[in-house]
Amino acid sequence: MFGIRRLVILSLAALLLLGSCGGKKAVIYTGKTYPPTEKVGYAFLPSQVPPTCRVFAQVLVTLPADSTGKSIRDSITDEARMRGADMILIGQSRQMKEDEGLNFVYYGPEREYLCNEKWCGWKYGYDAWEKQGDWVNIGLKEWGNAKIRFDYPIMMQAAFLRCR
User: Fold this and answer.
1) Pairing of strands 135-136, 54-63
2) How many secondary structure helices (H) and strands (E) does the chain include?
3) 21 inside domain
4) Which of 18, 40, 102, 112 is 20 to 30 A (C-alpha) from 50?
């Protein structure tokens, strides 16, 4: 009996380990938790952010090849809305060498802060960021545009803000 129990436990452990190999990475969010929001605004410059907004999540987003401006906006907006963001500050984007699919990698901050008072720029995730390829322009003309398609995977900087 003891041998069968041990075999079952070892088998379950092996399945968990094998199941975690390959495939899509899980989103691990450990930051401040807010109720989901209905509407999310966008800013492309910190100076466009209202004074009451606080940064509560700094994120590198990986987007699969063949994404459109609309699918990019919708994917990031859905994640921000689920985390309780009122606004997304969009940073720069780069072509990725490998397609990792849609993934959100969170880098803090340890404590949320007022964007207008303490924003210091994009200072997280450089271990991944610096390994990427050419710059990709995703601005007002591309953001949300279903007619614009990117044939390559993209890594994008974003910050989620709470403005209440």
Assistant:
1) unpaired
2) 4, 9
3) no
4) 102
CA atoms within 13 A on the CB side of 28: 4
Neighbouring C-beta atoms of residue 147, cutoff 10 Å: 8
Full domain range(s) for residue 34: 28-162
Residue 3, in any domain of the structure: no
pLDDT per residue, tens digit, the chain (164 aa), is 545 544 434 444 443 333 334 444 556 788 888 999 999 999 999 999 999 999 999 999 999 999 999 999 999 999 999 999 999 999 999 999 999 999 999 999 989 999 999 998 888 999 999 999 999 999 999 999 999 999 999 999 999 999 98
Domains contained in the chain, number: 1
Distance CA 65, CA 35 (A): 31
Q: List Cα–Cα distances, 47 to 55, 81, 110, 115, 119, in angstroms.
A: 14, 22, 23, 9, 10
Residue 6 domain flag = no
Q: Is the distance from CB of 43 to CB of 160 less than 8 angstroms?
A: no
Distance CA 52, CA 58 (A): 17
